[in-house]
Amino acid sequence: MATGTSPPCYHTLQHYSSIAPVQTRALQQLSNRNPSKRIETLPMTLANHDIARIFREIADSMEILGEDRFRILAYRRAGDAIANLPRPLAEYRAQQNLEEVPGIGKTIAEKIGVLLDTGSLPLHERLKGQVPTGVLDLLRVPDIGPRSAKRLHDELGIASLDELRAAVEAGALRGLKGFGAKTEQRIRQGLDALAQHEQRTLMSTALVAAEGLIAALRAALPDMERVSYAGSLRRARPTIGDLDLLAAAADTGPVVRAFTRLSEVARVISAGEAKASVVLHSGVQADLLVVPPAQWGSALQHFTGSQAHNIRFRELALERGLSFSERGFRQADGNLLTCADEAAVYATLDLAWIPPELREDRGEFVAARAGTLPHLIDLADMRGDLHMHSTWSDGRATIAQMAEAARARGLDYIAITDHSAYLGVTGGVDAERLREQAAEIAQINAAYADQGEVFRVLHGVEVDILPDGELALPDAALAVLDIVVASLHVSLRQPQEQITARLLRAIANPHVDIIAHPTGRILERRAGADLDMEAILQAAVAHNTLLEINSGPDRLDLDALHVRRALELGAGIVINSDAHNPDDLDWLRYGVLTARRGWATADQVANTWPPARLRSHVAQ
DNA sequence: GCCGTTTTCGGCCCGACTGTTTTCAGTCG
Fold it and tell me: Considering Cα of A345, then A347, then A349, then A355, what sign does the dihedral take?
């Protein structure tokens, strides 16, 4: 980072021309003497994501109708802001601080109130009459924006993706002014891509693909100066839409051309002198931006996003009379300040460098200016892993093999937490088998002690929370264990009040130390349980129960927003692999990235602690 | 519609690439 007398940037003389009922909070119900009557009298309330979706639909509809672009921007920003909120909108309203949320002003706060009270909004209903839902769907097709969607609807009567497909097949688009053969071909390809690749790519898969592309690009161009992935992958989002790659080279054109010729590339969408978009054989889209080395910092900042972060950043630059782009800071006199690294980009606006995982316009600018950004946890801070399986249940390796793999990765302790016998498919352990397992673990620990190793294996279990909230093992069996991990595996579709109460009962059990993968979501396949998370997080604080970030690439559960809210409330977090074989221990990397997105420091994560501190916490 | 080191008006992020054009609108990230 540039400090002291050296300017952060260099002056150059370059010139460049569903409606989900939330009902009542489960905690309130538990304390209510007559809960069933209470529920019936409460109005249905929209969840934050429902209201965010409504505002985004309003923005899309108004854009198709060609209304004022800044009003559209305001609705879209409000939708984004709401989607990012850590607590239910109703709480903000109750505390009368809705308008303190950036992007929510007087008008939108009133509309939120109407939505919370009545479940619908006159403006939204009116727009639905003018722009059918199927026309909004057209915007999901690559290369179809609001103008094209409006013309397809107005001039050809197309009001759904199916009708668009039929029109393309019938050659009807060619009759439209401005729609040539290439446009028709692109729309056909866009529809195909939408149909077969609607799913996003898991972070773990994207990381492997990105690292492969980077290696291939380096091999093809040995003299390329720098190359990195950027975008949502660098921000560690749990799933990734497109891969974004950035390269630095004095001569940009040859890098773009080499990229489009890589064997991984199935189809080139576009390619110019500075950037290209391709579709890989895996179906994933990859975008490459190539910049001169002097612009690496500004380009990396630009290409990492998020869009919301970038917009906010550029607004802050404008306040100082600087126009920021991937090329650098344009001054009023037209001169460009370039930045060769990201720290210089942020330093130019008197901001500390913001870690990519925090770049979502969720308060990181205020913290960067105040010098209060958290010192985020790193993988190297991890000392233990408190959730994994062995051949005693559905794991593929013995306890000794798991222990050795963990020790080889630099951990000081693990907990073996095989499934309780309740899950028929996994075999599992009952009270008797737990006693046998304890003897095996004692032997392994004795061997490590004899060798002078600090490494230790803790004895635990992953006990099922039964549909009624009982645990699948008796308290007496749990009491003798070092660590008890409790989790939901069945009946995940119970109504909110029921499944929340079920989890609250497990949290309150004094033997339970950790709640594993709290929501049970499987990314791109299954939404999590409909939990009242605020009640869950508060109960975890009250009972000193640790909440897990499960590092499984298709779980990453808790997610980052809940991690951040949990930490705000003072809950303890653990990051566990849930490994079923030794290689899965490497998944901790993804859990740590998720913790970083949740603003977690090492000290807030209990398995960065030395064993003694962890033991005393668990004993409380 | 939001917002304020340009605070109740007048701004609102910025540039690359494409297609169908002859100078730019639309889309994307």
Answer: positive
